[in-house]
Structures are given as structure tokens and as C-alpha cells.
Amino acid sequence: MRTSAVFAAALSLVSFAAANSPVSQTYPPPQVWKNANLVHIISAEKNYVKENINVLIENIAKQPQDEYFLPFTTDQLARLGGVEVKDRKDAKAGPFVAEIVEVDPKRNTQYLRIQLPTPLKPGAQQTIGISYYLLDAYKPLPATINIEDPQFLSYSFSAYCPSAYTTSKQKTEVKFAFSNIPDYTRLPGSGDVAEFPVKQGAKLTYGPFDEKAAGAVEPVQVRFEFNRPVNHVADLERDVEVSHWGGNVAFEERYTWIQGGANLTNHFSRVKYQHFRLPTWHILREMRFPLRVGSSDPYYTDVIGNISTSHFRSNKREALLEIKPRYPLFGGWKFPFTIGWNSDAQNFLRKTATGGYVLNVPFLEGPRQAEGVEYEHVQVRVILPEGAENVKYTTTIPSSSIVSAKVVIHKTFLDSVGRTSLVIKARNLVDDFRDRELVVSYDYPLTASLRKPIVVIASSMAFFAGIWLLGNLNLQFSK
Amino acid sequence: MRWLPAFVSALVASTTGVLAVKKSTEERFASFHTKALASSAVKLSDASFRELTAAPRDYSVAVLLNALDSRYGCQMCREFQPEWDLLAKSWTKGDKKAESRLIFATLDFSDGRDVFMSFGLQTAPVVFYYPPTTGPHAAKSRDPIRYDFVNGFQSAEQMHAWIARNTPNRPSPPVQRPINYLKWIVTTTILLGGGTSAFVAWPYVLPVLQNRNVWAAVSLISILVFTSGQMFNHIRKVPYVGVDQRGGLTYFAAGFQNQFGMETQFVAAMYGVLAFSAMCLAIKVPRIADPKVQNVAVFAWAGILFFMYSFLLSIFRVKNAGYPFALPPFM
Amino acid sequence: MSADLLQAVADVGKGKGTRSLLRVVILCLIAGAAIASRLFSVIRFESIIHEFDPWFNFRATKYLVANGFYNFWDWFDDRTWHPLGRVTGGTLYPGLMVTSGVIYHALRALNIPVDIRNICVLLAPAFSGLTAFASYLLTNEMTTTPSAGLLAAIFMGIAPGYISRSVAGSYDNEAIAIFLLVFTFYLWIKALKQGSMLWGAMCALFYGYMVASWGGYAFITCLLPLHSFVLICMGRYSTRLYVAYTTWYALGTLASMQIPFVGFLPVKTSEHMPALGIFGFLQLLGFLDYVRSAIPGRQFQTFLWLFAGGIFGVGLGGLVLATSLGFIAPWSGRFYSLWDTGYAKIHIPIIASVSEHQPTAWPAFFFDLNMLIWLFPAGVYLCFQQLADEHVFIVVYALFGSYFAGVMVRLMLTLTPVVCVAAAMAMSSLFDTYLVAKAPKPEDHVADEASEGAAKKAAKTGLKSTSRPVVGVYSYFAKGTIVSGLTLYLLLFVLHCTWVTSNAYSSPSVVLASKMPDGSQHIIDDYREAYQWLRQNTADDAKIMSWWDYGYQIGGMADRPTLVDNNTWNNTHIATVGKAMSSREEVSYPIMRQHEVDYVLVVFGGLLGYSGDDINKFLWMVRIAEGIWPDEVKERDFFTPRGEYRVDGEASEAMKNSLMYKMSYYNYNMLFPPGQAQDRVRGVRLPEVGPTLSTLDEAFTSENWIIRIFKVKDLDRFGRDHGQAMAFERGIKKKAPRKKGPRTLRVD
Fold this sequence. Notes:
- The complex is a heterotrimer.
- Chain A has helices spanning 2-20, 74-79, 270-275, 446-472; strands spanning 33-44, 49-59, 65-73, 80-87, 97-101, 109-120, 125-134, 139-140, 144-145, 152-158, 166-167, 170-176, 183-184, 187-188, 195-196, 198-200, 203-209, 219-225, 231-243, 248-259, 263-264, 287-291, 296-302, 305-306, 310-314, 319-323, 334-344, 349-351, 357-362, 373-386, 389-395, 402-410, 419-430, 437-443.
- By secondary structure, chain A is mainly β.
- The termini of chain A are far apart.
- In chain C, strand 7 and strand 8 (707-712) form a beta hairpin.
- Chain C is mainly alpha-helical.
- The radius of gyration of chain C is 31 Å and the shape is globular.
- The termini of chain C are far apart.
- Chain C is built from 32 helices and eight strands.
């Protein structure tokens, strides 16, 4: 695991370089592949969309190929995140490098380039699994509802999986949380199926379709019941502060939480709210944060002070922080808040043989909600002790989601030179990535660790001496 | 049951009103205005009240319903009556030609029970303003505008302002308070007398003025007076003693935020005793030369101090229920 | 033998070094106690700003910290008093904000980034420690016994009368003002005793700081001249007095005039005139003194004295004349209401409506000062023993302080310091008498008897009680009794102070606490719930209309523009809100439209039994509105014919139709089974059918219904009267519209 992480990270740094500079590239990509068989699984069970494309690709060119392209529209790209490509056959061959190549900004279609670890010989085949997430993918329909009404969302996509290559055989499955799916676009069937899609339970299946040309699309729309809040975190700032003297790691997370569901037709009426206490509901009443075992003294505040409606259950097996917002969150309502907690350093910090330190913390620890949570912007800041040097990091977050990573100086309590801190910005993550690791390694010389106490003692000594001198000063005019 | 008299009186009112209409409004106004010129505010009875206020009328009436008789113990009534008379006088004198066509009148409870009942009045004094129903100043609604003394005593000027508001674009002669010659004379004489006596007595007064004990006494007393809440009595005009449900006297008002006059004096006395015993212990006792006397004094004063303080605490517990602290013997 | 023991004990603090060290330690402990006893609310709830005014001070401080001093100095705040705005920089006392701003930046410079909120919350306790120290200094000026100062310090530290305005989180001007008050007095005494310009200048400096911090500076401005005047009357004019007063007045006045809010008041208003008059009078006396020293001659002196008196009279007359001609403004309302105690109730209902402007009943005195209240006169009496200038000051201060405290509850604050000082003097003299190891020998007193006559003569001018010489206390038993008794009283005092502080003065009225059945504390946080909702889910410039009590909190917590707030500078504007609240919808709606009101916020305690709600304050709104529109709003109409104030079925029509009533009880009866709706504050059953609103929508209601927020509807799409629109939606056939009251305003 660790090795793979390191591997990924190492590549990820490379991949930035690639992504930032436009690669010279023919448009559209040459027809060197054929999708022999393709299964497109769209799971709309949570309040974001997770799409899985399992495709058997075959090299139809003369020479070996190692680059496969997947098309996206520009507006999808803005909401795209967590792209991961794996070899379906052997799981341990780690994630392939995949990044967006910007060929021509004016075009509406852009491509994801997938780098195969080993070039595929002509005629050879390989099964790759591409999985990615799309944030705020749905439109509430109707856009406004009453408190007591159920909530319906609609999602539109293409029945044929968008591909840069000819696809000889494919089908598209759509999964939902509830089986109540009032409307969906119907297509003429083929073979023994009268019409698409086939609905079984909370699942729709379009296809199988026969051969389709490259870039063929068949827009369809589904409208389904989703009687849960749509949790959208516009901004998450996560601080991890390491203290060697205190033997403590302090976490603080600042959320800008927006409920993206259907707005209220009329205003909020407390009476109705108190009357209709439905079991599953499109109102966010509570969030549950399963923290690492051993987390202690949590706090839960917002801009005007402490929020008393929280409950922390901590024992050997779990450390569960349950918080209620100040007010129930309806569609379109906003609620920024801050939570934080402490934990013993030895749960996260190791000393290596070479005398350096290795910190291993979760990259993301959001609440665990049945309906899922999506994060638009995430900033993780690891604040290391004063004087820590040569900081390296690796993470198992998909490299394509990481926007930037840099080391800055952060000055706070009684610092003389300021603390080294690593700031990583990521975008379009979802709560499936909770507990993905962030491993930071750094050196912390003894002199640095002794600096603060020495400075403090010296300065306070100087202060008292000054006071003493002042006290002995004679302010009287000499007679 | 209490509706019956009201109903009857209302009936009477209507009938008399009908009768009254026989006299034209002009005549009525003339007659009442002459009366008004004669006296300050016309004193009314049930009948004359109905005649005066009967519709239609082309003049307006301001009538004070009052209960002067000491049996009703209405303090404000007695306070306000002279103000009202003064207002009426200066207004009526103010426009002899009666351009404002306003008549001031007074109806005392003893003369007009029926009227009081017909209005279902629980309190006095009350001022009713009857706008004219016909003529140039005729108002939309014929029913009178009522003025209650919700925020306490009103001076003639304040009442004048109210009436003037209700009689727009008409002359409203201001209130003329007569110069109180007697007061002037008295004050001047007192001043002169005081001055002369001071001048005569100066040699005798001076030592008193320069005497520390006097000043000490004065300042201590005033401090005690202020810290025992006398200003509260002065501002809130609290009763001297209270009366409980069974009609008995209560000397200590219930609750933290109110008090009785006597109560405060009592508290002041207690503070005084406590302070005095402390003073004695601090100043007098160590100056007693005789050991036995001194011993006695010490224990006497200490005892008084302790006793008083405990009593004070017990009284405070009465005022502030749930006050946990106490000293024997008053636990 | 016990004597030896006591001796041994007493010997501990013999050396000067040890004593001063002990003093420092004790003072530090006292400061610690003072701070600790003010932290109840922080421990019980959290570090939060309390009540109402502190929220404005907090907001202003944040503005200062964010935008720097000069922007703060000329800050025009357009988010209050919409649409008028407020020239905040020129209408506040900046001392408090600047103090915490300086502390904030100082800590920043030391790399200690403390949150500004915590600085504001903890400012008052920190300064209370300084106040204890200041009263220690002041008391030491009064007596020679070392114990008095320490006693005064601890009294000042934990006296509830001062704690009431200085618990953690009550971030108000008084927080620092009391320290400045006491310290200024100390410096004044110092300057007077030494006749030194340095101390006088220091006094002026701190006086300036005081002026910058609190409106109560007028207390100093009147007390110091008064003290000087009394001294002069006692024939105690001296160059020391001249130097001290002149230095203080000249520099202090200049300093005070630097504050925009004060500006030229010191030379234009009556409350500052005594200071000016005494200043002039002192010049005159100085001149005369000089002349007299130059030229002897009995009748010449008398002439001079007459001359002086004449000038004084003329000056006074001129002052009166100037006032009557209007060159000098007469007493300002707030100040005047201290003398003519009936004044405010008639003329300034806003002042009268504030609870802390009520007169003080005697329990309040005992509640706030416990045993000090009866030690106080004893201490004042002690001042008469050797009546030096500083003792005169204490006497004068005591008299005026107690008068003001009697008239206005909040001025208990200005009384507390002198009470502590005097009480400490009394207590310490008791201890000095009874806590001494050595006892006089009985045979000494023979000599005393002899010398008594002489002593009598000597003490002619002094107090009668002190005519005899001091002998001392003979029996140890007596000493023991007294000392143990005093100790008991002191312990009781400490218990009392702790009890009062924790029960009466430690709740941040923003957060309410209630006990669960199992005895655990349950926090009722409706205010912040609603304010946070406003802050997050309304437009940034949505105008909130509420009664003025909540203006500062809305500004501070919800960060939204308000119509009126606790800085009640514009009576008419407040009356407008009062009218809107107390009138029928048809009348209120145009008012709200004209003032661009988006949301209306009311406080309703009916469900929880929270008595401080708007229905209970309603009569003040009506009164204040009536003051401006006597013909449109009448207090009488809100009472039943029998003169009762009711909200149930019997309520008067005006009451039932008033916007406030409708908003408070809108939809409330749906919580209960039909006909069971209960108002737990008024303790009455409400009518079967609740009120209906046609021009407002319920936008938000907090968990316990304490805060209710309503949205003002836009004009009807089809230009209908809102009442008709509602009727139409309810499916009632549209009748011929009966015009009632003014039609709703049409502005597009």
C-alpha cells in the first residue's frame, strides 16, 4: 500500500508538469482503438454521481499504443473529480496515470488521457476500469416544494457511453437509492427487448446496443425520488497541527455547508416542521463524524460562538461526534461551521530509523452520511513544528484531483521563525475518499525543538529584569 | 345586573336628549357660555349634562368627570380640579367672543351618578371632548373623545395642548396662571427675616457651623437616609404602610423591587445601630480607662452588633426569598 | 503566653522587605480572586459577549481592529438606523474599543494571536484586578494603617455592586471606567496632598482617558470642584489646592475636548459649569492670597473678602444669565432627571423605559454591598476624626455617591468604590484595636485621668468621642470575641458575594439556561439560532425591523442593517417603529415599505414562559409612538374598558389588530389542540382562532418560538390590497372592497 502511495505521488508530481503545459495533440484523437465491449454504470444513489466505465479495448492500429482517450464536455470537466483508472484483470497493478489534456480551449469536448503502463501490441486486448465522480449533477424537479412533499431530482446523460472510438457492444446501467422513478426517457428496444430501458427495482438498464460510431450520443433524462438532503460543501479547510512538545495532533475543519436540494415554495413554518416528522426527509437535521479512535475534547462552533447541540460518544471502539446544525437545513440554506478535536500524537506520528519523522493522517475526514457528501474545494494544511525541514508528502487521493501543493511558513503562538506548513489544495472530492491517507515526512532537529523554550525563558527574564530596574529607578528631582 | 341601571340611564339620556333638542343649539350655547363667563367651568348635573351634550350641536364641549368627595379618596381628582378651572377660566376669558365655540364644564360624581354609570366609568377623573355635530367644525364621528389620566397628573398646559389638538383651526387662548402674590410676600418676608435673624444670631450660629460633630451627624444621617432607599419612596410615592388581603397592616412589602415608607425608616435605623456599635467598638471602647467598664462595653456593643445583623439578614430573607445565609438567633 | 505566640506571629512581617513582598503577594492574590469570581459565565456557558450594548462595543472593536484607528475615528455606519445611518465615530466613547485594540495589537506583536472576542470578553475582569489595586492606593492615602488598603482592595475586588457590571463578557464602558474613576481620584488626592503639578497632570491624563471611556465622567467633573469648594468654605484654601486644581482643570478640559463626542460641551453645558466656576474662583483667591500676603491690614482683608464674594456672586449671576439666554445649554435630559426625579417619566419615556434608570430600593443596596453598607457610615465617621483634605473628599464623595445611587440603580456603580474605602477604614481600625498582642497595664490609666482635662481642651475642635486619649483593650477574651466576630462577618461577606455573583450577575442573556428534569443543564439558544439564520440565509443588505433592544445584537450577530438600536439617538425613528408595531397592518405596511423593511423580528416568550418578550414591552412602544402621534396611537386603546392589559379573548380591538400581537401569536394556536392554546408568560388561554397576517409571511421561527422572523410581502402582483389577495386565495368571493384606513402604498 505504502509503496503504491509513494509511486502514485511521485507520478502525480510529474503529471502536474504534464497537465499544466498543453501537449501537442491531434484533434480528435486518432482512431487507433476499438471498444470491443463496454459497460457503463451510473450510480445515482447518493447526492453525487459516480460513473464506472469498464471497457475491453483492442488495438486496431499497426504499431503499439499506450494512450487511450476519454471525452468529456467542458461543463462536466468543471464538476469532474476523483478519476481513477485500473486494470480490471490484476488489481495490484496500481492506478494508471490519467490527466486532462487541454488541446483546444474553444472546443466543447475535451479529453482525458489514460497512460497505459505497458504499450499494447497491435490486435492485443485489455480490460480497463475507469471510474470518476460528477458533482452537483442533478436538478431538483420541481424546483420548489413544500416541507411535507417528497423531493425529486432529475439527471440527464447519454444512453450511449461517450467515447472517442467505435464501440461495437455496450450497455448503460443507472442505479438509484429509491425504486420510485416516475419518468425516464424511453428508447426503441432492440432484439428481444421491446423498449429501453428495462426497469428492475431501483435500477434502469439501457442497452445492450449494437455498434455505435465514435462520439455517438443519445441524450436521455431520468427523474427519480431522492428524499434526502443534497449535501454540498462549497469549501472545506482542514488544519492538522502537530506539536512534539505536547505530543498532540490537533485537527480543525471549517465547512461551508450548503443544502443543494429543492427550495421551499413557502417560507419555513415551525408548526409544520414540528408536525411532519417523516422518517426519511429532504431536511438535514444531523451530521455524524466518525473520528479516529482516541480523539478527544472536540468542539463545534460557528462565527457567533459555541453550538450546544452536539454529542460526542467516545470509547475503545469508536469516537463518534454527532452534531446538529443551529437550524434544520432546507434546500438552498447555508450553514458554515467549525469543528475540531485533539488526538494523541503517537496515533499518527512515527520516528524513522534515519531520525526523521513520518506523519500519516487521513486526507479527508468528513461526516458519514447515508446520502453522501460532496466537496467542491478542499484545502488541507499540515502545520509542522517550528523549524521542521525537507518536507515530502505522498497521498492516495487521485492525482488528478489535486490542484496544488506548496510549503509555506505559518506564524502563531510565541513563534520566532514560524512553523513549516504544507498546504494541499484539491477539488471535486466526495466522501468515498474519507480515510485516504496523507503521508508527510520531515526532519526536526533538536536545536529547533529547543528554540522556543529558550526564547520564551530569555524574554521573560529580560522583562522581569526591566521591571526590577524601573522599580529601583529614582524619579525624584534631586534637591 | 349592573347593566340595568346603565340601560335605564341610557334610555333617560336619549329621552332628555330628545327633549333638549327643542331648544336650538344656538340658545343652549349662549346660555352655557354666559354661565361659563360667570364661573370658571360650568358645574353640571345629570340633566344639564345631557342638555349640553345633546346632538345636534354646533359647538364643542370639554367636560371633566370628577369625584371630589373625600369619600372616594381620589387624590388626583382634587389635584386636577383647580388646574381644570384655571384652564377653563383663561380659555373662556381668552376669547370673549367665543370664536372657538368651546364650553368647559365639570360634572362631579355626586351630581351625576347616572352619567358615570352610563359610561361605565370605573375611574376618575376622565375628560370627554364632544366635537360639534353640525356647523363649520363638525366632526365625522359624533361620539366623544375620551382622555384618561394614564400617565398620572396633568398640568393645565398639558390638558390645554390636548384640547387644542382636538379643536384645530380655532383660536386656543393660552393658559394664564395668576401671579400668586401671597407666595411672593411670604417668601420675601421669610428671606428678610431669615437674613436678619442669621445676622443677629451669627456669633451663636458660627460655632455650630464649625462644629465637627454637627457636620458628622448631618452627613451620617443623610447617608443613612439615601442608602435606605428614601429616594425610591420619594420618586415612586410608595405608601407608608401596606394593607394585606385580610385588611391588616403589613410593614414590609413583598418582593425585591418595592418597599413601604416605614420599612425604609426601619432599615435606616438598623443600619444606624450597626454603624454606631461599630464606631463605638472602634473609637469609644479603647478609650475607656476602667477595665471592667471596658469589658462590659465590648460585650454589650458586640452583642448588639451581632443581634442587629442577624435581624437584618432575616428581614432581607423576607424580601429576597431563597437567600441562603442567616445568623442566630433569627434563623 | 498567648502574647508570645501572637508576638511570634506578628514578627513574621517585621522587616520592610518582607512586608512589601507580602503586600505584593497579597495584592496579586486579591487580583486573582477578583478575576476568578467574574468567570462564572465563561465556565458555565462559554466565552461570549453578554446582553445588548456590549455587542455594539464588540462590533465597533472589530471594526477598529480591521480598519485601523483613523477609519474608526470617522466611521459612518450605514447599517444601523436605516435609512439615516449613524456617525458612529463621532457619537461613541472610543476608550473601551481603543484599549482592547491596543491590547490586541500588543499581543500580536508578541506573536500571541489571541482572538479579539476573547480579549473583549476578558477585559472587564482584568480591569477589575487593576481597580482593586487602585482602591488599595486610594485607601492608603486616607489612613496610615497598612491593613486598610488591602481590605479595601479585596472589598472592591468582590463587591457585587461592581461585579454586576464587570463580569466576563459584559464588555461595556463601565468595564474600564470604574478603574479610571478610582485611579483618577487617587491621583487627585495625591496631587492635592503634595500640591505637585506632576500628579495634577497625571490626574488630568487619566481624567482624559475616563472622558474617552464613559459618559459618567461628569461625576468626576462635578465631584472635584465640589471638593475644592468645600475645602475653600472650610477655609482650607492653599497653594497646594490651587496648583492641583488648576493643573487638572486646564489639562483635563483640553484632553476631554479632544473626544469628538464631547467636543465643546465642557464650555457649553451646565454640568461642566461648576468646574469652570471653581477654576475662576480659585484664580481670584490666588490673587487675593497674594495681595493679602503683600499688604497687611485688617479691614483691607475684610474688604478683599467682600470683593471676592462679590465677584463670585457676579460670576454665578452671569452663569445663570448665560444659561437662561441660551449661550450655555441647560442640563441634558439624562443628567437633569437625576435632580428633578419626575422629569424623565414625563418628558423622556425612552430613558424612563430602561430598567437600570429606575430608583433603587433598599434591598438592592444590601444585595450589592452586604455588610459594607453598614460599615460605610462608620468609616465616614472615622474620616471626621482628623479631618484632613482627603477625608473631606471621602465625605463629599460618600454623600453624593449615595444620593445618586439612591436615584438610579446603575449609579450604584459609582457608590461602590467609596463604600469599599470607607468600610475598609472602619474594619481596619477595628482590627488595629483588637488584633494587637500587647495590652495596656491597668495602672497606666491613672495618669490618663490626670491628662484628661488637657486632652479635652485640645480636642475642642475635634470629635467629642475622640476627646479622651486611647488606652487600648485590656482583656484578650474581649479581643478574641471581637476578632472572631469580625472574621465571621467577613466570611459571610465572601459567601454572599459569591452567591450573588453566581446567581444574579452571571447569565449572558443571549443564551438562556434551563434545568432538565434530571437536573442537567439545558441550553436554550434561540437568539443565536435566529441570528445565524438571518446571517446565512438572507440578503446581505436585508433591513431588519425590530424593537430597539435587539438592534445591537442583530448588528453584531446577524450582521444585518437595522432600523433602530440601543443607541437611542433619534426618538422619532424609534417612535416610527413603535407605531408600525402597534398599528393595524394597513397602517404598518406603508411604513415598512417606506423604510425598505425586508424582515420583521419579534421576541415571543409565550411557549417557554420567557417573560422578557415584546408583548410585555409593548406598552412602551405604544407610549413612545403616542409621544409623536398622539392622535393615531393611543395607549388607552390597548387596555380593556376595565383598564386591564390583556392578550386573551378579552383583549381590546386595537391590541388584537396590532402588528405586534398578530406576529407574536400567528399560527401559535396550531401547536395546541383546538381551544387549548396557552400563553405561559401571561398565563392565559388564547382565543380559538389565531390572528391572520395579510402583508407578512412567516419566514423563520426559532426552536422554542422565542424569536419569530417575518418577511414583508412585496406589493401584490395584480395591484390588489393584500387583505383582498388573501381573501381571494382563501377562496372567498370578492366583495365590494370596504375602504378601511389608508390604502396600501404603491411604490414601484
